[in-house]
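--- STAGE predict ---
source: upstream dedup step, 1 unique chain passed
mode: sequence only
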Amino acid sequence: MAFRRSAALSLLLCLIALGSVSCLSRNRLIARIGGKPTQTLLTADRATLVDIISRQYQAVDDFNAEVDMVPALGSAEKSKITEYKDVRAYILFRKPAAIRIIGLYPIVRNKAFDMASNGTDFRLSIPTLNRFIVGRNEIVQLSPNKLENLRPQHFLEAMLVRPVDIQNDKLLVENFTDEGNAFYILHIVHQNGDGQLTLTRTVWFNRYDLLIARQLVFDAQGNILTDARYNGWKAYDNVAFPKHVEINRPHDEYGVVIDVVKMDIDKGVAADKFLLEQPEGSKLQVLGEAPAPAPPAPPSKGRTKKK
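--- STAGE serialize ---
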């Protein structure tokens, strides 16, 4: 009899607990990256995300930006990264693929590098090394000198996310939302001639505002070529553009953090701004070939002594 009373009492206590569950639980706000705990998450489908990329790209025909830049040489995989602080730079862009980047040293503001690309070929001037490097945008073989792995096209690829080729690419949408994140990830997959599928890019959208937060670009083996992250979107000349961009090229062992100081969008950039000529007296190096010797110094214009 005592056992029956005990069982009945336990059952009664359980029923009471279920009826007053609020006494045994508590509400907890989730603070995710990029938003406030009380902020509502936005929803979007695949077509909406593709349209966001397209509208952002189409809105920019050219720009002229003054930026603060922190270049970094090395990689996280090798556990060593060297950063160069307080580099002021100017980035010029004009569609379809012309870009020029001029970097200045800290304090003295002498030219550290000057590079330009037309979308196929690039030119890179390094005054302190008295070098002028030309070649194709594609890196066939990495150089032990990390500066020689710089490509202006990598900057453009990261700063201006190109539209999706909806005719040839296959698209998948992932809702990556948990206690720490709230993103839509658009996976862009390409099918080659053999029918093999290759992940070429992923574009991440913050679900608090549906702005692009990150882009990953992959090679055919699935290795990350570019990891670009975007923050602080604001309007420049009525066009949205990220104020803060982080670009990492792990395979090429360099990266750069860009903070926009001033930017003019769609105000016109003349074609001659993208012409980069070889400085007089510099050594020309065509990638894949040995550096050419420096031209001989001009003869002295002083008077010759009479014998």
